[in-house]
Amino acid sequence: MKKIAVFASGRGSNFEAILKKTRQSRLKAEICLVVSGNPSAVALETAGREGIPCHIQTPAETGEELLALLKRHGVDLILLCGYMRKIPAVVVAAYPNAIMNIHPALLPAFGGKGCYGIHVHEKVIESGARITGVTVHFADLEYDQGPIILQRAVEVRDDDTPRILQARVLKTEHDVYWRAVDLVVRGKVRVEGRRVLRT
Description:
The protein has helices at 13-23, 42-49, 63-72, 89-94, 118-127, 162-185; strands at residues 2-7, 29-36, 54-56, 77-80, 99-103, 131-138, 148-155, 189-192, 195-198. The chain is α/β, with parallel strands linked by helices and 199 residues long. It has two domains: 1-95, Formyl transferase, N-terminal domain (Rossmann fold); 103-170, 3-Layer(aba) Sandwich (Rossmann fold). The chain has a seven-stranded mixed beta sheet, with helices on one face. The chain has a two-stranded antiparallel ribbon with strand order 8-9. The relative contact order is 0.16.
């Protein structure tokens, strides 16, 4: 069974959704570690209640120290769930196509540095786009640039505000992320250049 580390900086609602699927045995994987640079992150409270080991990062922690922690826990796959730090290069190198992220838009649109959280939905509405959505991708050294695993469209409605749109997109995230993780865990994808292909 694949071992997963979740990196989260806040509530970690995607973490909760994925954890639920593991508890229901719909996702054959074990969340063995939760990492956060925010000691007040709700995700840490959730992990504590579920008996999942937690690690609170310090500003002085090096990439090598983080990598050693992951190796001690036998981590096979890293899931970014609202994680607000950049993954150290040494960790990215050690986990090629094994770090996953979810983005609340249809990449490559509305991605990159500064495009996170409510800011994404503000930009979508300001642009006049009629369709937005969710993207799950492998993370690399560049923000929102890794190969795309799954996407799902969400309609932008005339009366949407950024908050209303965010809530509807988040509901879609909770259904899409675990499905993408399931594909990876079961070895049902392979990466060829920029493309992620089903096997």
